[in-house]
């Protein structure tokens, strides 16, 4: 359904410096599946989300790699083609703080009209209103929201409304970047429930959920990828990644978060020392080596392979699986 092969993108600063925020990312998601991407701030999660849409504008630039949706490679299409044929229909993106993106002077129905008219210019207002009413009611949003302004909605309602607007054309792929951040627990639960319903009712075929909280992904996605310094350092099922992380960074990420799940909640919290490397000049060897408690001299000089285990898990580390489990 969605396949990404060795994707590389960069930012070019005003001083003409290159920041390699996505460096050699590959992933594959089948129809009906959802994946989560976790990692600390600055690891490249949001840049990966933008890059996956194939829609590049300065300072973000495409370097190489392929993004394939249903056999169609969108990575080399022109921006105008991406905007007219891909965004909203093939792939949709919910950015961070999306609830603040709504124009406070416009009614919600006007945003939906803009989205649909961009792809179906002949659609009438009545047709659009009927489509919007049906979709909102199915997703648990009262049709009265359509005639309201953004300032009349609570934060949780705004976020759910943005999700409904973004998926009104039933895109095949939905990328949700921190969709539950800045919300209270009740609102978070409603947003998660809405995303699940979109998958269950097949309004979207594939979902990518981005957050810095690994445990949250356990309750939302089928598989989890952990990202560090522009690279995917480990991937596996949600259960494997939460209860049995292999990569030292994944272990540190889990150890620094309170997890209420049985078997994990009694673990003592730990912190990952140091800071991520600069992506202007990424270090040789393992990018996590300067912060890794198990690093050896070879880790800072030797190229790190992507190891695939018999059960389908991947991790990027010079240590063997047996040695990792011993430490």
End-to-end Cα distance, whole Å, is 38 Å
Unreliable sequence segments: none
H/E order of the elements?
EEEHEEHEHHHEHEHEEHHEEH
Q: Strand arrangement, largest sheet?
A: 6-7-8-3-9-10-12-11
Question: Care to count the β-strands?
Answer: 12
- Number of helical regions: 10
Tell me briefly what this model is.
This is ABC transporter ATP-binding protein. By secondary structure, the chain is α/β, with parallel strands linked by helices.
Question: Explain this structure to me?
Answer:
- This is ABC transporter ATP-binding protein.
- Keywords: ATP-binding, Nucleotide-binding, Transport.
- One of its GO terms (biological process) is peptide transport.
- InterPro entries: AAA+_ATPase, ABC_transporter-like_ATP-bd, Oligopep_ABC_C, P-loop_NTPase.
- The protein has 327 residues and is an alpha/beta fold.
- It has a domain of 81 residues.
- The protein is 29% helix and 23% strand.
- The chain contains ten helices and twelve strands.
- An eight-stranded mixed sheet has the order 6-7-8-3-9-10-12-11, sandwiched between helices. Strands 2-1-4-5 form a four-stranded antiparallel sheet, with helices on one face.
- Strand 11 and strand 12 form a beta hairpin.
- It is globular.
- The chain starts with a strand and ends with a helix.
- The model has no long low-confidence stretch (mean pLDDT 90).
């Amino acid at each position: 359904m969605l396949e990404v092969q060795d994707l590389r993108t960069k930012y070019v600063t005003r001083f003409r410096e290159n920041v390699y925020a996505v460096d050699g990312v590959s992933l594959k998601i089948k129809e009906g599946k959802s994946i989560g991407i976790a990692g600390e701030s600055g690891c490249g999660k949001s840049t990966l989300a933008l890059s996956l849409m194939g829609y590049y504008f300065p300072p973000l630039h495409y370097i190489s790699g392929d993004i394939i949706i249903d056999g169609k490679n969108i990575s080399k299409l022109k921006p105008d083609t991406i905007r007219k044929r891909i965004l909203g229909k093939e792939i949709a993106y919910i950015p961070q703080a999306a609830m603040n993106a709504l124009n406070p002077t416009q009614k919600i129905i006007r945003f939906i009209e803009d989205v649909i008219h961009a792809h179906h210019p002949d659609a009438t207002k009545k047709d659009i209103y009927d489509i919007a009413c049906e979709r909102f009611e199915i997703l648990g949003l009262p049709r009265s929201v359509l005639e309201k302004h953004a300032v009349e909605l609570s934060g949780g309602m705004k976020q759910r409304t943005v999700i409904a607007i973004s998926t009104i054309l039933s895109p095949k792929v939905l990328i949700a970047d921190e969709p539950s951040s800045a919300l209270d627990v009740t609102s978070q639960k409603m947003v998660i429930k809405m995303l699940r319903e979109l998958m269950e009712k097949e309004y979207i075929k594939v979902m990518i959920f981005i957050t810095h909280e690994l445990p949250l992904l356990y309750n939302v996605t089928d598989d989890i990828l952990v990202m560090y310094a522009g690279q995917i350092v480990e991937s596996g099922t949600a259960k494997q990644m939460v209860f049995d992380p292999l990569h030292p960074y994944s272990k540190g990420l889990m150890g620094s978060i309170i997890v209420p799940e049985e078997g994990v909640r009694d673990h003592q919290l730990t912190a990952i020392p140091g800071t991520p490397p600069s992506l202007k000049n990424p270090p040789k060897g393992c990018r996590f080596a300067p912060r890794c408690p198990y690093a050896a001299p070879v880790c800072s000089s030797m190229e790190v392979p992507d190891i695939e285990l018999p059960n389908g898990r991947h991790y990027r580390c010079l240590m063997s699986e047996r040695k990792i489990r011993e430490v």
